[in-house]
Amino acid sequence: MFRFPRRGDGRAELTAAELAMLLEGIELRDVKRRKRYRRGAENTAA
Predict the structure, then answer these.
(1) Stronger pLDDT, 6 or 45, i.e. the higher one
(2) Strand residue runs (E) in the chain
(3) Predicted confidence (pLDDT) at residue 37 exceeds the cutoff of 60
């Protein structure tokens, strides 16, 4: 059974990827979220 992510204001917000998984039948609570690689600020001072 699908359960929407809970928020304090009674609304649910999904990303496009989460919506796609939901429509494909993947249970969001079983998905492991991993940190994404982010490039640090480049030193542009000359």
Answers:
(1) 6
(2) none
(3) yes
- Tell me the whole-structure pTM to 2 decimals: 0.39
Q: What are phi and psi of 30, to 5 degrees?
A: -90, -5
How far, in whole angstroms, is CA 27 from its chain's centroid?
A: 13
Yes or no: say if 25 and 35 are a contact pair by the CB < 8 Å rule.
no
Q: How far apart are CA 2 and CA 4, in angstroms?
A: 7
Dihedral through CA 13, CA 1, CA 10, CA 8, nearest 10? -80
CA neighbours closer than 13 Å in the CB half-sphere of residue 37: 1
Cα radius of gyration (the chain)? 17
Cβ atoms of 28 and 18 within 8 Å: the answer is yes
